[in-house]
């Protein structure tokens, strides 16, 4: 990894460190992130589409607990889906500040999970992120894929693919930027740079800002259904057994599976 790439990833991580206590206001469209009832209502309705997809894709799990790795768990807005007796969950998150918020929000649920829950502060783009091969039924990532510089796609997703059991699933959800997208208070400008093999990592850098006005450079890729499908296919994942990629006016989400022969 080049020094420039390493420094940019450190800046991106620092942004999320400092944004940890603001993050749930963004997620809930509250306080400084209030965009009105129409925008909020549309987003909440679109989230239900993801939750319905998630329920269907995980409904026929049998009696054994599903072993889950959540990458970049943040403040736990998707972690909560796994905090029940159906799952054994391990989270890898780069920000200790985010971890602190997550643990505070779900203290009771985490206690009830007992040894079926664990979380580690890990730089997901370093050698320290090294999940055990053939271990997980699900690798989950919410709002992570679009922040990965393309030069690291192969290394990162190969680790995730290797970590999956045969027929295990990678499940994801991320932002979808459409023509009528309205900028939020933390955005200096909308990223509409679609994934393109002719572009370099730095072409995907945009500015994000905190409520105090402090700005950071972060990576943000605008995925289409085709580009996310190509990205996951390139690392050996396949669409099978009810896998799909779905787009609505707020999110892009779906799942891909590790073939049994991989």
Spell out the blueprint of helices and strands.
Layout: H1 3-19, H2 23-27, H3 37-57, E1 66-71, E2 87-93, H4 96-105, H5 107-113, E3 117-121, E4 136-142, H6 153-163, E5 164-175, E6 205-209, E7 215-219, H7 225-234, E8 245-247, E9 251-257
Parallel strand pairs: 1-2, 1-4, 2-3, 4-5
Antiparallel strand pairs: 5-9, 6-7, 8-9
Structure description:
It is a single chain. The chain is an alpha/beta fold and 262 residues long. It has helices at 3-19, 23-27, 37-57, 96-105, 107-113, 153-163, 225-234, and strands at residues 66-71, 87-93, 117-121, 136-142, 164-175, 205-209, 215-219, 245-247, 251-257. Strands 3-2-1-4-5-9-8 form a 7-stranded mixed β-sheet, sandwiched between helices. Strands 6-7 form a two-stranded antiparallel sheet.
Jot down its keywords.
22% strand; seven-stranded mixed sheet; 262 residues; 31% helix; alpha/beta; two-stranded antiparallel ribbon
The total strand number stands at 9
Mean pLDDT: 91
Order of helices and strands: HHHEEHHEEHEEEHEE
Q: Strands of the largest sheet, in order across it? A: 3-2-1-4-5-9-8
The chain-level structural class is alpha/beta
Low-confidence parts: none
Helix content: 25-40%
Number of helices: 7
Strand residue content: 15-25%
Largest sheet: 7 strands, mixed
Shape designation: globular
Q: How far apart, in Å, are the first and last alpha carbons?
A: 27 Å
Radius of gyration: 18 Å
């Amino acid at each position: 990894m080049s020094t420039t790439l390493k420094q940019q990833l450190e800046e991106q991580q620092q942004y999320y460190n400092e944004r940890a206590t603001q993050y749930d206001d963004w997620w809930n469209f509250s306080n400084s992130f209030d965009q009105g009832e129409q925008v909020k209502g549309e987003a909440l309705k679109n989230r239900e589409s993801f939750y319905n997809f998630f329920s269907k894709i995980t409904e026929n799990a049998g009696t054994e607990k599903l072993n889950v790795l959540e990458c970049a768990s943040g403040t736990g807005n998707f972690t909560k889906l796994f905090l029940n007796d159906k799952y054994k969950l391990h989270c890898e998150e780069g920000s200790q500040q985010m971890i602190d918020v997550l643990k505070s929000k779900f203290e009771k649920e985490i206690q009830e999970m007992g040894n079926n829950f664990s979380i580690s502060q890990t730089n997901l783009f370093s050698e320290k992120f090294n999940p055990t091969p053939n271990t997980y039924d699900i690798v989950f990532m919410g709002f992570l894929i679009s922040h990965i510089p393309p030069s690291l796609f192969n290394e990162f997703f190969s680790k995730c693919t290797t970590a999956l059991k045969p027929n295990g699933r990678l499940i994801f959800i991320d932002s979808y930027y459409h023509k009528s997208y309205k900028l939020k208070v933390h955005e200096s400008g909308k990223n509409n740079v679609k994934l393109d093999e002719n572009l370099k990592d730095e072409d995907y850098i945009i500015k994000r800002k905190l409520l105090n006005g402090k700005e950071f450079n972060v990576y943000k890729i605008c995925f289409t259904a085709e580009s996310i499908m190509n990205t996951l296919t390139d690392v050996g994942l396949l669409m099978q057994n009810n896998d799909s990629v779905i787009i609505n006016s707020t999110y892009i989400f779906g799942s891909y599976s590790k073939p049994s022969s991989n």
